[in-house]
Design brief:
By secondary structure, the protein is of the alpha/beta class. It is built from 13 helices and ten strands. The longest helix has 25 residues, at 2-26.
Length: 328
């Protein structure tokens, strides 16, 4: 019996040793217990900020550590992206941003201080929110046809507010103006929230911006919705046609919100974050809140998200180069 107990003890010790050796492999270098910074590279009130504040409490609960939203604005969102790209790759610093805007950065900023496809690791593509093209109520255009005709008839008299030079909403406006045969004056602001405020106040006349942030302005009459991008009409705006129905380009343009980690982040850490985000997005209450904001959940894992980002960078890069768009 003593020999059996000795063998059992030896086996138990080996099991404990194997468990101890395997444990760090489960989530290597994950910042257990540390506060996770969810960096929004735009001002409060925009789509990324709204989404971050919805997700942060649920992320805190599932990760078992505090998740705080941190707005770090500047350089068309590149300041916050650079901050995360240089952070310790342990899951303690994450970027939530419009992935479409991030995709334009390599073509728009030749001297970008980080490599979008190398220095940032896609974690999960979260939602797609179509653009709402809206105008200030003073604009004498009640529908899409009237707006296109007004823009063509009165060149350079209509100002289009955007969230920054080279942002996807800026490029969408460029493509629409070309399609209409019109000249629109592009006015960049520091983020979508500032652009919305400018158009609602009459400082500019037109905006193309994510439905998540823009829909409340159309519901209360501060803006008049003219058209929406995406595959279908919005439930909250059933009378507003899609770009596709109108025969307009950039039908799939919109805000594609995603979360990124620093490039060297170990795959198991990325997998843990991806898993937590998938659980959050699968919650009926979260899906309902996204729908109320005019957004569709588009959960996409790290590898498909990475391929999507590379494709978007190439597609929007062609638009940037063809129109010789450069930051001011």
């Amino acid at each position: 019996m003593a020999e059996i107990r000795t063998e059992e003890t030896a086996m138990h010790r080996r099991a404990l040793l194997a468990s101890a050796l395997a444990a760090p492999l489960a989530t290597p270098a994950f910042a257990q217990g540390a506060t996770v910074r969810l960096v929004v590279p735009f001002a409060p009130g925009g789509t990324s900020d709204i989404l971050a504040r919805i997700l942060a409490p649920e992320m805190s609960r599932l990760l078992g550590q505090s998740v705080v939203v941190e707005n770090r604005t500047g350089a068309n969102g590149n300041l916050g992206a650079e901050l995360v790209s240089r952070a310790t790759p342990d899951g303690s610093a994450l970027l939530i941003t419009d992935a479409g805007a991030l995709a334009t950065a390599p073509s728009l900023f030749p001297r970008l201080t980080f490599d979008v496809l190398r220095d940032l690791a896609p974690v999960n593509l979260l939602i797609y929110a179509p653009y709402i093209l809206a105008v200030h109520p003073s604009v004498r255009a009640r529908n899409a046809q009237e707006l296109a005709e007004l823009a063509k008839r009165s060149p350079d008299t209509l100002n289009v507010a955007n969230s920054g030079v080279g942002a996807a909403n800026h490029l969408t406006a460029v493509l629409l103006a070309q399609h209409w045969g019109a000249n629109l004056t592009q006015v960049p602001y520091r983020g979508g929230a500032a652009a919305l405020t400018a158009v609602a106040g009459g400082e500019a006349q037109i905006i193309i911006n994510g439905a998540t942030a823009t829909a409340p302005f159309t519901r209360d009459g501060r803006l008049r919705a003219i058209a929406v991008s995406g595959p279908k009409r919005l439930e909250g705006l059933p009378d507003v046609p899609t770009f596709a129905e109108l025969g307009w380009p950039a039908t799939e343009s919109g805000t594609w919100q995603g979360i990124f980690a620093p490039g060297p982040t170990p795959a198991p850490v990325i997998a843990r974050l991806d898993g937590a985000l998938r659980q959050i997005l699968a919650q009926p209450e979260i899906a309902r809140r996204m729908a109320d904001l005019g957004a569709d959940v588009r959960a996409m894992g790290p590898e498909p998200f990475k391929a999507w980002l590379a494709n978007e960078a190439e597609s929007w890069g062609r638009v940037v180069r063809a129109n010789n768009i450069r930051p001011e």
